[in-house]
């Protein structure tokens, strides 16, 4: 992931350059899926729960290994619940993923486009293997 959010950029700068210390996020971070770019300021309103009627969607916990060479990789696998439509009837396309500091709402920390995007239909499970999600600090 290369896209650091505005929130995280400001928190890091304040922590390094001012007396305002940054408090690490909750012990648990969460992977999110989006149907478009959430944008650095998290104003994109593209998270699956906000734009499609998948009644089973929820962010999944994600952990990371210690960084090496400016890169940290996920150290657990994530499996989203199988797609269940409420009133909707069409599949949806996941184009981006994000990392948040809370299971709902919270602060977007990082986001990135998926390549390739994933089309999810009723009954499908989106999953990410351990090590598949990486954060690179450049």
Using only C-alpha atoms, the radius of gyration works out to 15 Å
Spans where pLDDT lies below 50 across 5 or more residues = none
Mean pLDDT: 88
The helix/strand class is mainly beta
What is the CA–CA distance across the termini? 11 Å
The tally of strands reads 9
Gross morphology? globular
Describe the structure.
With 138 residues, the chain is mainly beta. 12% of the residues lie in helices and 31% in strands. It is built from two helices and nine strands; from the N terminus they run E-H-E-H-E-E-E-E-E-E-E. A hairpin with a 7-residue loop joins strand 6 and strand 7 (108-120). The protein starts with a strand and ends with a strand. The model has no long low-confidence stretch (mean pLDDT 88).
What labels describe this entry?
138 residues, mainly beta, five-stranded antiparallel β-sheet, two-stranded antiparallel sheet, 2 helices, 12% helix, 31% strand
């Amino acid at each position: 992931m290369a896209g650091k959010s505005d929130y995280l950029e400001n928190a890091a700068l304040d922590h390094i350059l001012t007396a305002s210390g940054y408090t690490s996020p909750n012990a648990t971070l969460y992977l999110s899926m989006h149907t478009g770019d959430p944008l650095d300021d998290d104003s994109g309103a593209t998270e699956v729960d906000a734009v499609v009627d998948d009644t089973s969607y929820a962010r999944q916990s994600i952990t990371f290994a210690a960084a090496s060479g400016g890169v940290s990789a996920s150290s657990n696998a994530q499996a989203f619940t199988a797609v269940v439509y409420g009133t909707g009837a069409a599949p949806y396309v996941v184009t981006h993923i994000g990392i948040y500091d809370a299971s709902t709402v919270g602060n977007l920390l990082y986001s990135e486009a998926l390549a390739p995007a994933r089309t999810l239909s009723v009954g499908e499970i989106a999953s990410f293997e351990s090590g598949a999600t990486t954060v690179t600090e450049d």
